[in-house]
User: Which sequence fits this backbone?
């Protein structure tokens, strides 16, 4: 889209040089041919350093837009970003793409469906009712069990196992809300990247990113019934036990162990080698490595055990 046509869609003024815009991205990652947005004053530093061609911004923050970056001034920047995201959403399937590439030694069930543009590595096993979307990539020696869906553009590494009914790359739970309480879908135009030697259990959802990638790093183990939100990053060799999950944009370091039914709020940073007992509720950053936590509100595991003993005595 041209920048002038974007301004027209957003119903905002435009009096700058018109250029071609190739996509949308976060403030930190946007390039000189991309549009970004800001919906919160805590990102002022990111506005000032962005390389974006234009930024969707409210009038209260327009003074922070750097020279050379076009401000697209709107009443509700988050709502306007949601409107624009639809225009940059890729088509779900594209018949003009070349036929899928299947590597030597790979076995694909006659009941599986591989979309145009997909690439499957060597010696893989793709079982019945698997769907692999357009331009998705699967590495070598990977096993994908029945009814798994891998959405378009997603990447699965080598030596991975994905069990039945899991969905890789479904849209993250993203929407904007206006002052009338109406919701507008934010199209999730990123992808999911799963590195090598990852095993994912059944009925797991790993959501695609709004921009960029949701990242599952090498050696991760994910049990059944786990939810990984959009733009999360799960560190190497981390473990998620059944019915646990993370809200969007939370980043876990290496070798984090997450007990069953534990949950992370969004936009957190979790130190490497942290351990969370079952049903932990994590709502703040964990900055020190090697600690074990429990409970909600979250506390040191030993303190939580002592607290349970005291409560039990009070009830006698």
Assistant:
């Amino acid at each position: 889209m041209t920048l002038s046509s974007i301004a027209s869609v957003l119903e905002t003024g435009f009096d700058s040089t018109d250029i071609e815009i190739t996509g949308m991205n976060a403030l930190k990652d946007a390039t000189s041919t991309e549009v970004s947005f800001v919906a919160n004053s805590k990102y002022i530093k990111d506005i000032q350093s962005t390389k974006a061609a234009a930024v969707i911004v409210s009038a209260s923050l327009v003074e922070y837009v750097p020279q050379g970056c076009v401000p697209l001034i709107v009443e509700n920047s988050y709502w306007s970003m949601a409107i624009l995201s639809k225009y940059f959403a890729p088509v779900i399937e594209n018949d003009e793409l070349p036929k899928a590439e299947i590597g030597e030694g790979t076995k694909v069930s006659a009941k599986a469906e591989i979309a145009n543009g997909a690439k499957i590595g060597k010696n893989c096993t793709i079982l019945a009712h698997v769907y692999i979307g357009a331009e998705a990539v699967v590495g070598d020696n990977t096993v994908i069990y029945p009814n798994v869906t891998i959405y378009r553009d997603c990447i699965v590494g080598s030596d991975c196992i994905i069990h039945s009914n899991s969905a890789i790359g479904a849209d993250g739970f993203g929407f904007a809300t206006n002052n009338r309480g109406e919701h507008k879908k934010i199209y999730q135009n990123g992808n999911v990247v799963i590195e090598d030697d990852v095993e994912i259990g059944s009925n797991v959802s790993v959501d695609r990113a709004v921009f960029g990638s949701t990242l599952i790093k090498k050696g991760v183990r994910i049990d059944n019934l786990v939810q990984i939100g959009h733009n999360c990053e799960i560190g190497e060799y981390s473990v998620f036990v059944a019915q646990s999950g993370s809200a969007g944009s939370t980043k876990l370091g290496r070798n984090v162990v997450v007990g069953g039914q534990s949950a992370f709020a969004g936009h957190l940073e979790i130190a490497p080698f942290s351990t969370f007992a079952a049903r932990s509720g994590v709502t703040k950053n964990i900055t020190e490595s090697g600690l074990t936590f429990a409970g909600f509100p979250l506390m040191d595991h030993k303190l939580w055990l002592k607290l349970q003993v005291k409560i039990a005595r009070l009830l006698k």
Residues 101-253 form a domain with the UDP N-Acetylglucosamine Acyltransferase; domain 1 fold (CATH 2.160.10.10). The longest helix spans residues 301-314. The two ends are 70 Å apart (CA to CA).
